[in-house]
Amino acid sequence: MSRNDEHEPRDEERARFEARLEGARQKARRRAGVLAGGPGELARDADDLYDAATLEALGVDPARDLGFPGQPPFTRGVQPNMYRGRLWTMRQYAGFGTAAESNARYRYLLSQGQTGLSVAFDLPTQMGRDSDHERALGEVGRVGVAIDTIDDMRTLLRGLPLDRVSTSMTINATAAILLALYIAVAEEQGVPRGKLRGTIQNDILKEYVARGTYIYPPGPSLRLIRDVFAFAEREVPEWNTISISGYHMREAGCDAAQEIAFTLAAGVAYVENAVRAGLDVDGFGAQLSFFFNGHNNFLEEIAKFRAARRMWSTIMGERFGARTDRARALRFHCQTAGMTLTAQQPLVNVVRVTVQALAAVLGGCQSLHTNGFDEALGLPTEAAATLALRTQQVIAHESGVADFVDALGGSYAVEALTKRLEEAAYAYIRRIDDLGGMVAAIEQGYVQREIQATAYRYQLDIEERRRVIVGQNEFVSDAPPVPVTRVDPALERDQIARTRAFRAAHDGPARSEALARVDAAARGEANLMPPILDAVRSGATVGEISDVLRAIWGEHRETLTI
């Protein structure tokens, strides 16, 4: 064989690579044109084959874009050893009826191996209405626990190890009040505020877009969030002051790229708001956390989490000058996708939840909730909640995936999807910046319209059977009924009676003076958290404190968008 013959196989291999590279570049250019008009579900437009040419055409630089776990840009995870050091927090979202009933569920879940608490509040509590308010009728304790008073919080937290577990509270418009109640009760139990660990959702912007449990207009709402940031940095340093949430926007119908973009754009708005007030980005930035949806498209979801981490590290470093790794690291909780659960053949939801949870773990979550299979029908029964927790435990202890740090890092398909989602999300963020930022984009209805359009396309795909939903539009069969949780209407009457009795017992000058101090702080520039904390200790209710702020700030009126 001549020297030229020796090189022929290598030359042919190079020629094939160059042909693949050119094809990949052409497809990348075509896809970029599509993304300019708004992306759909990227994984549904998958390449036939992913290889080195795909990544080269996309401009992926492993040294720059992947790095190492625990180091910027955190694509591969926020901890150097990830779950080899400590498993994610298994935090099952729960709460219904009264504080006593919810406390019993938390005790049960902790006894079954849950490692963190997650509190669901009823709609009146979320909207700043006490249980005896006329607008609370029929909603008390229905979708979460009713918390009106410090006595309710005492009952909710009775016997729980607040010095050893972290507590997440899904609360937004009234987040400052619920945090104050939690601090007050913890200190009564002998746990100092400096040792409390947990999260308040406290993300009002997504409420205007997708969820609706807002009270005040954006301006004063952002001021209240900023006050929580400043107070917690000094007083509750282990607490996450916000959980910037893409979850609810995904539930409303946005796709993976939009979930990243709208979540991070909201994060930018919160950081800008705090920086303008003179807060140190490396201080409050270390207490920011995120909340993402765990949807069905397995590889796309893993890529989504990786892209979000990389983007947030870049945004915090380049846009806001954050210097510390802690302030640049995107730490997130994941909940499996409620909107993917079907009332038809509900046991099939166990499979959906397992796939979604595995994607969250392989995507590097710090905390995880797995939905009960019956949640398309009602609040999860104890049996369904237990099985959901067992799903996490099997993934953690039997699947072997926790033994690897970023097991899918370097996968051609995963890295290509990560890059494409990153590009699509940045395109949305640039558009939001052009509109004046996330608050302006919401006020103009841009974010809402984008979500509506994507949700409409998704629904058409199901109805026209371009997208298979097992048990709903394909593989349809009868399934036996499953038990459904029912909340006893008598619980509402009992809660109303307790709230009225508490209010009567605390009707005195101490409560009135404390509420007056909340009023004065809201009208001025003082931080609202100290007077709110004094007010809950004096016996002021969630509704009373909210009403003081309503009287000053007014209520937000939704801008309808179509």
Automatic annotation (TrEMBL):
Region (Disordered) location:
1-40
Q: What ranges does the record list as Basic and acidic residues composition bias?
A: 1-25
Q: Which SUPFAM superfamilies match?
A: Cobalamin (vitamin B12)-dependent enzymes
Source organism superkingdom: Bacteria
Which GO-annotated molecular functions does the record name?
Answer: cobalamin binding; methylmalonyl-CoA mutase activity
Entry keyword set: Isomerase
Q: Which residues form the Methylmalonyl-CoA mutase alpha/beta chain catalytic domain?
A: 48-555
What name is this protein filed under?
Methylmalonyl-CoA mutase
Q: Which organism is it from?
A: Sorangium cellulosum (Polyangium cellulosum)
